[in-house]
Each structure stands twice: as C-alpha cells, then as structure tokens.
C-alpha cells in the first residue's frame, strides 16, 4: 500500500511540475518528444524495437531494454523514446540545377534506421529534420555534377551517391541511411518538348540506319547470287567444253581407226588378182567426181593442161602407184597414206580432202 501511494504521489508531482513549467523554455523538439513520453510509474514495460533514454536528476543515466524495468520516482525521468524500426521519410519536392543548366523539380523517399539511441538523442536536436535537410542538400550537389541525360540514365548511381554522402555525416548522429529513392523528376515544358523531339529524331535515325542496312544486305545478297550464278555458269560451260572436246577426240580417233581399216582393206584388195584393174577403175571414178565438183565452192579453177585426156590421167596415176608399190611394198599404212597425199588434188575425193 505504501509503495502504491508513493507512486501515485510522485506521478501527481511530476504532472504538476510539467504543467507549471513555462512554455517559452521548451523547444519544438522537446514538445514533440514530451507529447509521446511515458510517465515514470516505477515499474515500466518497454516494447520491442524501442529504446527509452532515462535521465537521473537531469543527467543521462541509461537506456531501458525491452521488457521489465524499474525506475526511481522523481529522480529518474524518461527523456527520449527512440524507435529502432526502419523509418520512412518523405523528402519534399525541391529544385536543382543540372550540369547543363536545366532546372529540375525532384522529390524522393528516405529510409533510415537508428543504430545508437544515445547519439540520436544527444547528437542532434531533431534527427529526422537534420537527415531530411542533409538529403536535400546532397541531392542538389549530386545533380549539379550530372547532365540532364545522365540524370535519367544514372538514377541508381545517383541514389547510391546520396546514401553514401548522408551516411558520412549521420554517423555522429547514430543514424544509418539504408537507401534513397527518387520518386519523380519534373522538367520544364520547353525542355520536355525538346526531349520529345530528340527522341523522335533518334527513332527516325534508327529507322533510317536500319533501312540502309537492309538495302545494303539486299544488294550484297543480290551480288552474291549473281556471283554464284556466274561461277555455276562458267563451271557448266567448262564441263560442256570438256565433254565436247572429249567427244571430238573420240570422233577423230574413230575416224582415224575407220580410215586405217579402210586403208588396210584397200591394200589387201590391191594385192589380190585384178587389183590393178580395180585401182584403175577407182582412180577414174575419183577423177570424174573431182571434175564434177569444180567451181561449186569458189570462183578460182585450176585445170591441168591435158584435162580432156582421161586415159593419160589414169595412166599417170597408175604409174605413180606402181612406183610406190615397187619402192615400198605394203608394209605400213602410214607410209601409203603419206604417198597418197602426194597425188594431184584432182585425184583425191572431196571427202578425203575434208578429212585431211
């Protein structure tokens, strides 16, 4: 009973002293904290993720841990209550000038966490306000290092630079900046119009480049097709010429073999009985055939002096033949062919002249 009575009297005295204190002596930060400060009821239960800073006779005493805690009435006073959860602060919109002298309106969101309740309570008057102002000034300085195009492309690096700069200054306040995110970036209307025109020009440029690349690829494909067609045509012509040459060679060989066979048969026939008479008959026929073809192909005609003496012509041809038969008996078909070429042109048939 005595303890309960003592607690009630101490609470009443504390309330009277707070009500009787002049308002001019209390700062805005103290008013904010005083509105949420718990009273000293001797037995206190501190919630999880909260730190209560206790002063004894106006001097820092200790920080209450979550759970059950005991305080001395009148002497101990809960001065600050710090939340150890992650705090989200909305950074108001502000103007900043980029490196290329473009005025931007930027706002963001700041994520904080208190790591040291003692520094957060006694290191700075209002930690949230201090961090917000630091984030705004840091954002202005970081934006002044970038051009307008890089501000949109390097938002992630810009956020990381702002967080790094804030953490360098907020270590003395016991506050850790976890991340900073830019919400909106507003540009002047004229700058927005010029950016839109730039985007359209860039798209037209890409379209033109792609169209030119397509035309180039098409021209290259057409040239490659023509090249392959010419190569295939030349290979086909080459094969055709090879086949034609092979056929002509085979035809020449076949004609030569047929002529050789005919010469052999002729030589065999001349060695038989009445072979000379047959030779005379053949020479006479060739003579008559040769005179029948005169002046059919050209206008130039060469006539022997004894054109009308057929018997003399035949006799002369047979004399040449008898001389060849005596000097070179029928031993070689090639020798007989050479001697036959020495005969007068009018004794050789047109077919043999074309063959020769």
From TrEMBL:
Domain of life of the source: Eukaryota
Subcellular locations according to the entry: Mitochondrion
InterPro entries per record: Band7/mec-2_domain (IPR050710), Band_7 (IPR001107), Band_7/SPFH_dom_sf (IPR036013), STML2-like_C (IPR032435), Stomatin_HflK_fam (IPR001972)
Primary location group: mitochondrion
Residue ranges occupied by any Band domain in the UniProt entry: 41-199
Keywords: Mitochondrion
SMART domains membership: PHB
Protein family (similarity comment): Belongs to the band 7/mec-2 family.
Protein's name according to its UniProt entry: Stomatin-like protein 2, mitochondrial
Taxon lineage: Eukaryota, Metazoa, Chordata, Craniata, Vertebrata
